[in-house]
Amino acid sequence: MSNKKETAAGAAPKPKPKAAAKGPVMYVGPTIPGIGIQNQVFTEIPASAQEAFKKEPELGNLFISIKDYPEANVMLREKRGYIHSAFNKALELKNGGKK
Questions:
Q1: What residues does 25 pair with on adjacent strands?
Q2: Separation between Cα atoms, residue 60 and residue 86, nearest integer Å
């Protein structure tokens, strides 16, 4: 048995969204007006995106430290993990609730 906590899908537990990350952040979600352009780098998370977090907190997981991009890219490519889950939630938001 492993001491690591894992979800049913075998992924690590989801980290909580960071409302105030230090340094530049990259948005790794789909392009959504008012939130971000895919792979855009920001000096800080835009206020409009922070407002969206109030309705969908999971979207905060799409703003990552630039150094975390390789890991996020793997999660998106392999369709697993908390980044992929947040990406799908953002797609639903972009498409008006449809996947």
A1: 42, 65
A2: 8
> Do 27 and 38 touch, CB atoms closer than 8 A?
yes
Number of domains in the chain: 1
The domain containing residue 30 runs over which residues?
25-94
Is residue 84 left, alpha or beta, with left meaning phi > 0 and alpha meaning psi from -120 to 50?
alpha
Domain presence at residue 13: no
* Model pLDDT for residues 4-43, shown as the tens digit of each residue: 444 444 444 455 444 445 789 999 999 999 899 999 999 9
Looking at every residue in the chain, the average pLDDT score rounds to: 83
With respect to residue 63, please indicate whether it lies within any of the assigned structural domains.
Answer: yes
At a CB cut-off of 8 Å and minimum separation 6, what does 51 contact? none
